[in-house]
Design goal:
Number of helices of chain B: 0
CATH superfamily of chain B: Immunoglobulins
Helix content of chain A: 25-40%
CATH class of the largest domain in chain A: Mainly Beta
Strand order of the largest sheet of chain B: 4-3-6-7
CATH class of chain B: Mainly Beta
Largest sheet of chain A: 6 strands, mixed
CATH architecture of chain B: Sandwich
Radius of gyration of chain B: 16 Å
Number of strands of chain B: 7
Distance between the termini of chain B: 26 Å
Order of helices and strands of chain A: HHHHEEEEEEEEE
Radius of gyration of chain A: 22 Å
Distance between the termini of chain A: 66 Å
Structural class of chain B: mainly beta
Oligomer: heterodimer
Helix content of chain B: under 10%
Structural class of chain A: alpha+beta
Number of strands of chain A: 9
Shape of chain A: globular
CATH topology of the largest domain in chain A: Immunoglobulin-like
Number of domains of chain A: 2
Shape of chain B: elongated
Number of domains of chain B: 1
Strand content of chain A: 35-45%
CATH topology of chain B: Immunoglobulin-like
Chain lengths: ~160, ~100
């Protein structure tokens, strides 16, 4: 009787151990956590493919009263401040793209109902290129670009 | 890694603006180590969730293209002094960190 219980206990702890190892090795957690993370969009090598993966369209139309704030000349491509504002109503998401990067889709911001269409961050730029902002509303996708000249690239080295 | 997020929230004219600075290497996985010539493994924040009073205001989905020690600023309607705001990031290794602040 005692021996049988001991067997069960041993088996139980072995099973828990296996799951623990799987979590520790990163086999379980990232997939569960990253369910909504659009990997295909971020790994895409061109803007069209990335946008198609992310928003279901290859590009937006001009409009949406988008304002991109970014420097005309960025001395350090590793840190380029970018702000995107829009006056469009019902903005669902804002995407920031560095057209000259190997993987151009940089960041996508999903706005909750209380959020205002205004986000700022800092991005890496490999070379002089257009920064593109894509604003998605309930039924439209708008886009705007601004050129940023980069004197020292910020990807690799 | 605790205490490595700086977050400030300020209410003005019916809007609240939040600014946050995180500490993170943001390695793309494409960069080579200059000494060894080997690729530095990818290690970057993939998702940032921003809450106001337990309600999600903004979810940022990021690639390795966001700069090291990322900065994020956003705005939302409403918000009063004393309301809690919370920011949580998760990276590609499953590491996570959370910070809170009260609106001023």
């Amino acid at each position: 009787m005692i021996d049988a219980k001991r067997r069960i206990l041993l088996k139980g702890s072995l099973a828990v151990g296996a799951v623990g190892v799987a979590v520790g090795a990163g086999l379980l957690t990232p997939r569960a956590v990253l369910a909504a993370w659009p990997e295909a969009a971020f790994k895409a090598r061109d803007v069209k493919t990335g946008l198609k993966e992310l928003l279901g369209v290859e590009g937006g139309e001009p409009g949406g009263d988008i304002t991109i704030k970014a420097p005309d000349i960025a001395e350090n491509g590793a840190v380029v401040p970018v702000s995107v504002d829009s006056t469009a109503t019902g903005v669902k998401s804002i995407t920031i793209i560095a057209e000259g990067n190997d993987t151009p889709i940089i960041a996508s911001f999903n706005l909750g109902e209380d959020a205002l269409p205004s986000v700022s961050t800092r991005i890496k730029m490999a070379k002089t290129a257009n920064v593109q902002a894509v604003v998605q509303t309930a039924d439209k996708v708008y886009t705007a670009t601004k050129e940023v000249k980069v004197t020292i690239g910020g990807c690799g080295g | 890694m605790a205490g490595n997020i700086k977050i400030r929230a300020k209410a003005e004219g019916g809007e609240t603006s939040v600014k946050a600075l995180m500490t993170h290497p943001m390695e793309t996985g494409l960069r080579k180590d200059k000494k060894t010539g080997e690729l530095v493994p990818a290690h970057y924040i993939t998702e940032v969730t921003c809450k106001w009073k337990d309600k999600v205001v903004l979810t940022a989905l990021w690639s390795g293209g966001v700069s090291q020690n990322p900065y994020l600023a956003y705005k939302f309607k409403g918000g009063q002094a004393g309301d809690p705001v919370e920011l949580t990031w998760v990276d590609n290794k499953g590491e996570t960190e959370t910070a809170t602040d009260k609106i001023t």
